[in-house]
Amino acid sequence: MWEIYSIGDSAYLAAILNAVAMITGTGDFRQLAGLGFLIGVLLVLFQGILQGGRGIRFQNVLVAWLLYALMFGPTARVAIEDAYSGAVRVVDNVPLGPAAVGSMLSNVGYGVSRLFEQAFSTPAMTDTGFAEPLQTLMSVRKGTLSRIALGSANSPTPGADIERSFINYVADCTLYDVDIGHRSIDDILREPSWDAALRSDLNVPTTELVLGGDPQLLPCDAAWTVLSQYTAVEFYPALLSNLQAQMRLAAPGDVTNKVQFALDAIAGAGVDAQNYMVMTALIGFLEKGIVQTHENLGQWELAATTEQAAQQRNAQWAAEQTLFTRIVRPMMTFFEGLIFAITPLMAFTIALGPAGIAMTGKYLLFALWIQLWMPILAIINLYLHMAIAGDMDALQSTADLTVPSILSLYKLDFLLQDYLATGGMLAASTPAISLMLIYGSAITATHLASRFQGGDFVDEKITSPDVLRPAPALAMSPIMEHAPLRGTTTTGADNELWRADVGQSVQRDLRSSQHVAEQASQQFTSGLAAASAPRTSPTRAR
């Protein structure tokens, strides 16, 4: 039995090998090979006639027939093992040539990758997947971004609203602690334990909790006791179930093990997975609590700015996809299947003689090109893990941040985005890298170098705007507007908010007073003139 390690999709490869076994066992396949041998004999005859004294080289036809008989005569059983899941699929009656070539080359590529990973002592890509720890932490972050991402975890029990409860607590208690100087924002952001990050020990303010049944109005210290207990007992298991569905794992316990493995690989030992997952959810609650506080105080600009920043970050994270699933594995699946799918055509090319045998050599180089992808990806995987682990170590030692404090998770967001983007670019460049190694093509090297060139990402018009620009036929208003005297506001907010225009009111009152004074002056002048005018006696007039 020949064993083939599938670096793409083992089910897809098994279907192709079944098709190859079926095709090579039919009479049509033998007719195709016979047509090739007929053309090959004719080519040998014409070459012998044209070359004159060298004679007709029938040995070329004999060598071609021997290769054909060796590769497509006997059949073998092939066991296809998935390089990621370990699932094995068995296919019978596969021609010996494709089975032997596929087994040898896949063992070379997969075996070298395994040796690299053992020497690197990093999370094995062949066991967990490409950049799997980074993908895991990204999945946890995406699963706790908003109410929609939390899904049923936001209401673990009927009538509960964990997000609304935390938002109320942050606005009424946590930030009140900050306002009176009892705590600072920096203390909250640097606290590595979720149970202490937002807790307030004050018993004077009250807040409303919605944890099922009627809302509870409790003092801050008592409210945190109820809220933290509910989080540990009800919210955390619901969060695990939600993440389990998103990560497509068998049990909620697998989520904890997977997240713990990722944290150990990136942040080092000592970071608790449960504390990390709950803290990622608290980030969104804290941000929305800050927005609610600004709204309660009438600080509309600050509320809109904070909300916009959170929404933009959530949109960016929601757009991220698994790089290995989106880029690398589909390409490897297709090309791996293509190698075996075209093997019936190799029978025709081999029968043509030396020219066809040379084409078969290129076919083997094509197969080697695919198998080089895994070792190169293993090297890229090593780079990503070492780079982000080094940055995280520097973050904790130099910046004095302890994972998973809220501030450290903000920093980790930027690191994950940067390195996942870098890993995606390098993974997409893997085919070009392996092709350059095999063929040494200058064109391939030039194309690869062009992928690493930077672009123009700076908009110089921000600081040096155009002096004159024609207006479009239809202009869309921006979401936010900024003016030196008015600050940052949402477009159209002036029509919805209360406004007092003191200047116009004073000017209108002044004009009204001036008008009244002018009328009074005119009336006084008219009355005075009428009183002082000489009167004519009626008798004297007669």
* Cα radius of gyration in angstroms: 38 Å
Lateral arrangement of strands in the main beta sheet: 1-2-3
Shape: elongated
Query: How many distinct helices?
Result: 22
Mean pLDDT: 80
Helical percentage = 55-70%
Helix-and-strand structural type: mainly alpha
- Give the amount of beta strand, in percent: 5-15%
Major sheet: size, sense and barrel closure? 3 strands, mixed
How many angstroms does the end-to-end distance come to? Answer: 152 Å
Instruction: Give the ordered list of helices and strands.
Output: EHHHEEHHHHHHHEEHHHHHHHHHHEEHH
Task: Detail the poorly predicted runs.
Answer: 313-321, 537-542
Count the strands? 7
What does this structure look like?
- The chain has about 550 residues and is mostly helical.
- Among the domains are: about 150 residues, no CATH class; about 190 residues, no CATH class.
- Helix content is about 65%, strand content about 5%.
- The strands form three sheets. Strands 1-2-3 form a three-stranded mixed beta sheet, with helices on one face.
- The chain is elongated.
- The N and C termini lie far apart (about 150 Å).
